């Protein structure tokens, strides 16, 4: 029979898992940008940009985690900035990439 863990421990584990999910989404979106930049096929480029934008939006949506705001993590900010730069290179407008983090300090 499985041992029941205290609620606080489960909440902490959930927050950690959600934070890792957000970072993985950013990594996936960055990979799709790399694929889009590497292809010569316009339909492949468009599909990869669309996938990157989906990953971007998913990461932003899940970045606010109960008891923890991933947007304050340095790794999150670095990956997000890298992704935004890549998306802009692929023709996405900066204003379309608002992540609501303008109030987040640039450095820890």
**Mean pLDDT score:** 84
Q: How much of the sequence is in beta strands?
A: under 5%
Give the helix tally.
3
**Sequence stretches where pLDDT stays below 50 over 5 or more residues:** 102-108
Helix content: 55-70%
From the spread of the alpha carbons, the general shape counts as: elongated
Report how far apart the termini are: 44 Å
Give, in spatial order, the strands making up the sheet with the most strands. Answer: 1-2
**What is the chains' assembly state?**
single chain
Secondary-structure-derived class: mainly alpha
Description:
- The chain has 108 residues and is mainly α.
- It has one domain (16-91).
- The protein is 64% helix and 4% strand.
- It has 3 helices and 2 strands.
- Strands 1-2 form a two-stranded antiparallel ribbon.
- A hairpin with a 2-residue loop joins strand 1 (64-65) and strand 2 (68-69).
- Helix 1 (7-38) packs antiparallel against helix 2 and helix 1 packs parallel to helix 3 (74-89).
- The longest helix has 32 residues, at 7-38.
- It is elongated.
- The termini are far apart.
